[in-house]
Amino acid sequence: MANPATLGAAALSADAIGAGPMSGPRGARPRRRLSRGNVFLYGTLLLVSLYYLLPLWVMVMTSLKGMPEIRMGNIFAPPVEVTFQPWVKAWAEACTGINCDGLSRGFWNSVRILIPSLVISIAVASVNGYALSNWRFRGSETFFAILIVGAFIPYQVMLYPVVILLRELGIYGSITGLVLVHTIFGMPILTLLFRNYFASVPEELFKAARVDGAGFWGIYFKIMLPMSLPIFVVAMIIQVTGIWNDFLFGVVYARPETYPMTVQLNNIVNSVQGVKEYNVNMAATLLTGLVPLVIYFASGKLFVRGIAAGAVKG
């Protein structure tokens, strides 16, 4: 007769064998990192990245070369001798019409246009979106529908009427006129973004604040603003990109002394006098695009969060 201890040991051994390597882990089989799908996906992303980065590479390399080296061809090669003179000339010496002060004057004009337009449009649009999402008033839906229509009206349709309006107000060709135009034309899309974002805030939070005695502005400043940083970043990036890169409004509603940076860039690049200095043109183009690029890369994560939270709800 077998020893009970021996039988117990044999049973434990059988259980161990049954739960051993032969049984294997349960669940889905882990995917290989170098699968055919991954190779195709990352290969496609790499090609697309190269497609978009190649022009930037050419611009940077050309802006760091002298004209003798540029005339030798091979635009993709790095400079043999690095020079920053094209950047200096693009900023302070290039001629834009009768003025030869480079992009510096246009840069400060763009700053004077951007800051008040950005602050006013975001402040007003955030209050509009907050009111439309949480405070129902007579005609609110009609007002919102008008804003939606205004967001999709082509700017070119409104050029001449706005010229007449600014002329009658006495601000045509001035920085104030451009600030007013950018503020008004940025209002519809910003109001839509803020309205959709505030509509995603739990209604119970709003009702609890009303029960505690908070009014319109109390709820806005104490509850809505502290939790709305992502959508404010989205609005800021949209407005900075649109206002800073704008050419149409600048060339139509401004005078030479108030031209923004993009109009100055056009005058430098499309100049028909003298030798075509490609290195200066590339440096001027890069200088013009630095501001929106820096702002976007500095706040890219908040931009994605704000878009995901506010642009697809409501």
How does this structure look, described?
With 314 residues, the chain is mostly helical. It has 2 domains: 36-83, no CATH class; 104-310, MetI-like (MetI-like fold), CATH 1.10.3720. 69% of the residues lie in helices and 0% in strands. The chain is flat, with a radius of gyration of 30 Å. Residues 4-22 have low confidence and may be disordered.
Write out key terms for the chains shown:
314 residues, MetI-like fold, mainly alpha, 15 helices
Short description:
The protein has 314 residues and is mostly helical. The protein is 69% helix and 0% strand.
Count the E strands. 0
* Mean pLDDT level: 82
Please report the distance between the alpha carbons of the first and last residues: 79 Å
Our estimate of the beta-strand percent is under 5%
CATH architectural category of the largest domain: Orthogonal Bundle
Largest sheet: none
Shape: flat
CATH class of the largest domain: Mainly Alpha
Can you tell me the CATH topology of the largest domain? Answer: MetI-like fold
Number of helices: 15
- Fraction of residues in H or I helices: 55-70%
The parts where pLDDT drops under 50 for at least 5 residues are 4-22
Structural class of the secondary elements?
mainly alpha
Report the order of strands and helices.
HHHHHHHHHHHHHHH
- CATH superfamily descriptor of the largest domain: MetI-like
Number of domains: 2
Radius of gyration: 30 Å
